[in-house]
Amino acid sequence: MKRQDTKWQAGRDVWWQDVVTNFPTKCDVEWVDAEDPLFLLYTSGSTGKPKGVMHTSGGYMVYTATTFKYAFDYKPTDIYWCTADCGWITGHSYVTYGPLLNGAAVLVFEGTPNYPDAGRCWDIVDKYKVSIFYTAPTLVRSLMRDGNEYVTRYSRKSLRVLGSVGEPINPSAWRWFYNVVGDSKCPISDTWWQTETGGFMMTPLPGAWPQKPGSATFPFFGVQPVIVDEKGQEIEGECSGYLCIKKSWPGAFRTLYGDHDRYETTYFKPFAGYYFTGDGCSRDKDGYHWLTGRVDDVINVSGHRIGTAEVESALVSHPQCAEAAVVGVEHEVKGQGIYAFVTLVDGVPYSEELRKSLISKVRTQIGAFAAPDRIHWAPGLPKTRSGKIMRRILRKIAAKQLDELGDISTLADPGVVDQLIALKDC
C-alpha cells in the first residue's frame, strides 16, 4: 500500500503525541535473582534443529558489561555503532546489554549498509562521529569488493577502534579494514565467541599487544581455552585441533530450554571435563589463536582433513575474489571433493582463465590436495540477516539436490538461490 493511500480511520487511528503523555516516563526496576532466566535465543547456525539457548541475569550481564568495556577500550566520550541485527546474540550482548550497562551512547541503524551506495556506513560514521565500529567480516568483504573510493571520500577521523564478529576474518579483509577503513591507526578487536558463551572469549585488547591479521589472539580475562586432539588430550605449544574451554565463565548459557540432555550431550560429552566449542583452532609459536571454522565444516579429501575456512581464505586472497564459500561434495575417487562458490570483485567478468587462476592460488597457498574441484560463480551468497552463510543450501546446490533446499524464507535475499541455480552449469 502506498503511503498516500492510507486514510485516517476514526476509532482506529490515534496521534502518538496525544497518547504518549498518558503514560509514566519511569519504569520501576523488577528485581530478580542472578540465576533467573534473562532471555532465550533460538540458534541452529546453518544446520540442525533449533536450540533454545538460555542465558541468566547476573552472570550474563556482568560478562557482557566487562567484555564490552575492555575489548573496545570504551570511554564515556565514545559513540559506539554495532551493525548487528538486534535479534541475534551480538545484538543482545553488544548492541543492548553490554553498551547500556556501561552507559554508552549507542547508534542503532535499521537499514541496508550499502544503500544508496557502498559509502553509507562511512557517511553515518562522519555524521554521528562514531568512534567504535563493530561489524561482520561478510560486510567488510562486501564493501571491499565495491572499492576504496566509497571509503576515502569520507574522513572517518572520529574512528578509534574497529571490531569484527561472526566468523574468522581472512587476512586480506583484515588488512583492508585496518589500512583503508581505519587509516592504519585503528586497532581491530577481532572477537571470537558464540551464542552459547554470551560474550567474547578471545579478543585483542586495543593497544595491549601486537595484532596478527586474522587471529583472535588471546583469551579474555579468566577464560581458559585449550586445544585437544581427537582423544581429548590437551596439546601444548604450536598445534591444531579442537577448541575447548577448561573452566566456567560468567556468561556461559545454563541450558538448552526444555532439553537439558541435549545440552550435556552436545557441549560436554564430546570431550569429558571440557566445554566443546565445535570449532577448530590452531595456535602458532607465539601463542596466538587462529579459528579455522566449525569442525563439521571439515572436508576429507583422500585422507587429508581440510578446513573450509582455510580454502576460503586462500581464494579470497586472490585480488579478483571478493568472497568465497566452500562445501564438500561426494567424489568417486577422493571420497569428498571441494566445491567452491566464488563472488568476484565488482566488474570482473567470469572466465575460464580466472577459474584456473583461483584454483592455482589455492594450490600455491595450501597444496594440490586442497585445490577446488569445482568453481561455481556466485553473484551473491545465501545469508541470514545476521550475515551467516547458509551452507546447508550451498551443499544441496552442489549436490544437485534442488528439491531438498528446504525453507529459504529466513535469508536476507532469497533471490540469491535462484541466481546460483541458474549458474550451476556455467
TrEMBL record:
Catalytic reaction annotation: (E)-4-coumarate + ATP + CoA = (E)-4-coumaroyl-CoA + AMP + diphosphate; (E)-4-coumaroyl-AMP + CoA = (E)-4-coumaroyl-CoA + AMP + H(+); (E)-4-coumarate + ATP + H(+) = (E)-4-coumaroyl-AMP + diphosphate
Essential cofactor(s): Mg(2+)
Signal peptide annotation: none
Molecular functions (GO terms): 4-coumarate-CoA ligase activity; acetate-CoA ligase activity; ATP binding; trans-cinnamate-CoA ligase activity
Sequence ranges assigned to domain AMP-binding enzyme C-terminal in this UniProt record: 310-388
PROSITE patterns given in the database record: AMP_BINDING
Domain AMP-dependent synthetase/ligase span(s) in chain numbering: 15-248
GO biological-process terms attached to the record: acetyl-CoA biosynthetic process; phenylpropanoid metabolic process
Keywords: ATP-binding, Ligase, Magnesium, Nucleotide-binding
InterPro entries, per the entry: AMP-bd_C, AMP-bd_C_sf, AMP-binding_CS, AMP-dep_synth/lig_dom, ANL_N_sf
Protein's recorded name: Acetyl-coenzyme A synthetase
